[in-house]
Amino acid sequence: MADTEKKTEVDTHVLQALDVSVHYGGIRALDGVSLHLRKGQVLGLIGPNGAGKSTVIDAITGRLTLTRGRIVLDGEDITTLSAEQRRKRGISRSFQRTSIFGGMSVYRQVELAAHMTGLADARDDALDILAELDLLRLRDTLGEDLGYGEQRRLDLALALAGRPRVLLLDEPMAGLTMQESMDMAEHLKALTTRRQVSVLLVEHDMDVVFRICDAVTVFELGVVIADGDPAAVRADARVREAYLGSAA
Amino acid sequence: MHSLRVPALLLIVGILVTQFVQSGSLYSIFTQAVIYAIFALGIGILLRQNGLVSFGHALYFGMAGYGMGILLAGSGMPAEAAMLLVLLVMGLSAFLIGLVIVRVPGIAFSMLTLAMGQMSYLLASRARGVTGGADGMGIAWPAQVFGVSQSVLLKPPTFFLISWCIMVAVLLVVSLILATRFGSISEAIRDNEERARFIGIRTTVPRALIYALSAVVTGIAGLLSSLNSGFISPESLHWSVSAIALLMVIVGGFRQLAGPIVGAIVYVLIKDVLGDLATHSMAIFGTALIIVIVFAPEGIAGVLRHWLRRPQTAASANELPGS
Amino acid sequence: MLAIHLFNGLVYGALLIIISSGLALIYGLRRVVNFAHGALYMLGAYLGFAIMQASNFWVALVLAPAAMAFLGVLLDRYGFRLLQDREPLSVMLVTFGLLLILEDVVVFIWGKTNYSIFTPELLHFSVTLFGESVPAYRVAVLFMGVLVAVGLTAWLRFSRVGLYVRAASTDPVTTSMQGVNTDLISAGVVGLGCALAGLAGIVAAPFLSLSPSMGSDVLIDSFVVVVIGGLGSLGGAFLVAVLLGIIQTLGAVYMPAIAVLLPFMLMIAVLIWKPSGLAGSRT
């Protein structure tokens, strides 16, 4: 009985973080965290600052080494792989602090990103993403010459290039206006549904989270304190106390 | 095609010079400038593509000469083959060295190259048996190189034109290399190494390749110099030689591939052609360096570009159509 | 003979202590690798020479470093302070530009001939050390090196200003938030660093002749000392300075080329394995 249950779990989860801990310099950034991302799901990650949300993404993408635990992508243990290797296996991320290529044009860098994953039609993929994110008219502009909001979209475009299976987004709406945030959320939902990408979304903007996420996991001080259906999480007393404030 | 514009222009300039200039000594000075220009081009490639400042490229400049000196003295190898061998070995060893040192960031890299350069200088100064020690060694160039007799080859106008054409060819080849996918990859690494890794680029090998390319280009300058003077001494390996070449790169501007060429020309102009100013040439360059770094980081080439053209979009500045 | 060479090695080591500590201090406060340090050493020597023409060695010993200190304060105030938000590499190249200018100034004022300075009358005798006869002046240089080493260490460790300097070196932002005037401290420390370079120059003048290239050689050696000794660690710099002095002097006479290359190989090894001190901007 237990075996078949496990088998189903592995089948439907495209990404799992299993009992992950990241300790450094006396700090326990993550302590025994487990995450399960289903195929095609948009999973929101919320929690106060310093709760470990970005650290989870760093751990999953290989930016940080795990003190303990495993990362499993579609049944394959990728814990010991480098960041470049993980990217080639279809895990992609965006950055909270915009990280783009200033000296290259928009099109060139997105096309390069698509090319690096071994995609045959890198050109078409790049054009498609740029069109969806409304960056096509800026295709020849250098990264460093873009406005803040445009750079955020470019950061996202770089993550989307190459048809990744799993997308980890680290506060993609950071610094955007309300309208820009809503627009980006719509673009995101459309793109990820169309391309069947599974998404892990770290966000502060509660409206966005509860609007586009299928499930939500709540962090506090490096541990998971609640997870599940957005509405249920919103109503959870511990979550309200820790994060949303009792006024929510 | 953009990448053909500058080399073509330079080629025309070179040919024009041979039509109008008569003085042999002037040609000697010009040739010096070209040799330095190629040297600086090598350093410029490293700085432009890897963002690394090398204080030790004189190592490759001098080693080319020493390589020729040693090979032509004992092995009976034809000069043409020796030149090829020297460049090949230089490229390979620079690549291997590069794999180790390109990971060293910032000033640490610069100091490391400074140490490398000084080591080679000390080694060459002391290994009397192999390198002739502090006195240097003569290079036994054969009577004919590439089928042309030395007396014809070394006539100042001829040698100048040959060197100039080699410089233009190097510039062309390097632009073509950098316009390929490899060029994009190395630019991405230069712009944002972390993000480059997160889009799947393994960063060490491309950077080491760029380092090797920069070493080979500088080595070509060294070969020309050794042919021109027939002699090599440890002085060619001293860190001050690297530093002067670096100066040309920065004052000339390294964002433009041809910027170092401008820097070399300016250097030689001030040092050898402007007479009275020449005694204070170092102070002038020091001041120019400071001014450029503080106020005009794009260097002279960058300033020229702003004056001569309308604002560039990335399409014509960085890409070949259809890339 | 070995004892003499060893002694001379220690003397050069003492000189390196004086000049390298200046370099280390400037790096510690301003994160600047001062390429002009060798030129400042040279300027100190030439200034001392000029002052000696008018009066004597002892006056020069005080005035030359003082003049360099003043120069250092100007350098910090109008150079390093204004460039503190730039890439460390850019600032280093600016100091290289300064090196070129200073060398030209020296040649312009004093020409290219080498000059010799005689050791001061007071120290113009010989001392017997371990059965060998050595010039008293050189023993005095040794003492000067020890004095500088001990003095600096004590000052940094025990004085209030020293505490501020150490704090500002480690974390300038927090330190200035505590109300310490970090700009004043920086100017002072850079002034001190340049004074030390000048002091080394005037101290070296009587036994190394003055030439426009004297800065170059010493510069490389002081870089080696500061990198291997560990940036920010004066104690490490002192130890390496002495060792390097001995290796250079003994190496020139006894050892094969390898021995002279050893310091550079070590420097390269340190930079490959622990570049963190010189890696990048101070964030």
Mind explaining what this structure looks like?
The complex is a heterotrimer of chains A (248), B (323) and C (283). Chain A is α/β, with parallel strands linked by helices. Chain A has two domains: 168 residues, Rossmann fold (3-Layer(aba) Sandwich); 66 residues, no CATH class. A six-stranded mixed beta sheet of chain A has the order 6-7-8-3-9-10, with helices on both faces. In chain A, strands 2-1-4-5 form a four-stranded antiparallel beta sheet. The relative contact order of chain A is 0.17. With 323 residues, chain B is mainly α. In chain B, the strands form two sheets. Chain B has a two-stranded antiparallel sheet with strand order 1-4. Chain B has a two-stranded antiparallel sheet with strand order 2-3. Chain B has one domain. The longest helix of chain B has 27 residues. The C terminus of chain B is likely disordered. Chain B contains 16 helices and four strands. Chain C is mainly α. Chain C has a domain of 195 residues. Chain C has eleven helices and two strands. The termini of chain C are far apart. Classes of the chains: A alpha/beta (248), B mainly alpha (323), C mainly alpha (283). Chains in contact: A-B, B-C. At the B-C interface, α5, α12 and α14 of B face α4, α9 and α11 of C.
Short structural summary:
The complex is a heterotrimer of chains A (248), B (323) and C (283). With 323 residues, chain B is mainly α.
CATH topology of the largest domain in chain A: Rossmann fold
**Beta-strand segment tally of chain C:** 2
String of helices and strands of chain C: HHHHEEHHHHHHH
What string gives the helices and strands of chain A in order? HEEEHEEHEHHHEHEHEEHH
Instruction: Please indicate the count of domains of chain A.
Output: 2
Number of helical segments with 4 or more residues of chain A: 10
Q: Report the CATH architecture of the largest domain in chain A.
A: 3-Layer(aba) Sandwich
Q: If strands are numbered along the chain, what order do they take across the biggest sheet of chain C? A: 1-2
CA(first)-CA(last) distance of chain C = 51 Å
**Average pLDDT level of chain A:** 85
